[in-house]
Amino acid sequence: MSRYVALGSSMAAGPGIRPRAAGAPFFAGRSARNYPHLVADRLGLELVDVTYSGATTANVLAETQPGARPQIEALNGTEDLITVTIGGNDVGYVPLLFAAGLPRFVRSLPLLGARLTDQLDASARDRALVEVAESLRAVGRTLRRRSPAARVLFVDYLTLLPPPGTAAPPLSDADAVTGRHVAAELARATAEAAADTGCELVPVAERSIAHHAWSADPWTTGFGLPVPGRPAPLHPNAEGMRAVADLVVAQVSGRGAAESG
Prior knowledge:
This protein is α/β, with parallel strands linked by helices and 261 residues long. 41% of the residues lie in helices and 9% in strands.
């Protein structure tokens, strides 16, 4: 059976999508119905899923998380397929959207307000985007070096925000513009990292534009407080994970990133 290693953050782990993956660290938020599990089931692959909520490129390459070693250590050179969904936490993408969705008076609160203001600082996000571009290339180079015979697929992020001209309450128009900019630049950096390091891209962001969180057929959840047993806010829902799995399976099977949904 071919070996498949899945790396990445919560956008791959699927926090709140039941059931939880057996044996996963509690804080990983890893679902047994995330896209890596669905891909492995459909293609008959032996899955090693080390996706972990909150992961950054540093957690893929070198840094630990509670109950988990750096994700790169899951590779042993025998894998045939690797997927990686990473970078959003490096640039504070979802925290930016959460901060933007809170009532404005919260930004004036001591301590918390300062943290929120930092999350909403467009220049800080731009600096982080410059840094993540090189970090993503480092991920690609390392995966290619560690597993030279494997197909390595960068799987970018599902689209969360609606297109320009469509309201995204409770975000202001200005905050939505910043969020779209971060998402677009992250997708661009991911595509360039894949191309520059001999990896492949599964363009999930492009294929999910019509299925944003405010659409009639969303592949992601909207704003709200985390509720046990339900998909995390501003993260993939079960339909989104199935759609991403469709795109990955199509790519692996040689059909390209065909339209899904």
